[in-house]
Specification:
Layout (H helix, E strand, L loop, with lengths): L2 H19 L4 H5 L9 H20 L7 H7 L12 H6 L5 H20 L18
Helix pairs in contact: 1-6, 3-6
């Protein structure tokens, strides 16, 4: 198995789990456990945003996330959750789970297209970090 195959299979497994997780009730999706944990809704948004940022960066393409996705989901346009205080993370609410699902699906599809065209040799390319956030 190549490294690209391993990444593809790992992401397929992860994406399936994220798709399953978004099927909870609004109460389940927004429940915040104690001691600094985050809601499922926050995790769904954050993981998709991070994947979007990474694939955007390595493919030198614009992010899928847009002002329209932010408006439709009710989530912040700027940022992706990293560095967010626990208090701010606990306030994150997805206004429209179907819109978040649409965004996630668009990210997952773009990632799959990107990985379908990548070789193990491509993975050797160094990509400098920007602003210490990537």
């Amino acid at each position: 198995m190549s490294t690209v195959d391993f990444i593809q299979r790992s992401l397929e497994f992860t994406h399936a789990a994220l798709i399953d997780a978004r099927n909870g009730t609004d109460e389940q999706l927004h429940f915040v456990p104690e001691q600094g944990s985050h809601s499922i809704a926050w995790c769904l948004w954050h993981t998709s945003r991070v994947e979007d940022l990474i694939i955007s960066r390595v493919s030198d393409q614009p992010q899928v996330w847009s002002e329209e996705w932010a408006r439709d989901t009710g989530l912040p346009f700027d940022g992706f959750g990293t560095g967010m205080s626990d208090e701010d993370a606990q306030q994150v609410r997805v206004a429209d789970v179907a819109a978040l699902a649409g965004y996630q699906d668009a990210v997952f599809e773009r990632t799959a297209r990107f990985l379908a065209a990548v070789t193990d040799e491509d993975l050797e390319r160094e990509i400098p970090a920007r602003n210490g956030t990537e």
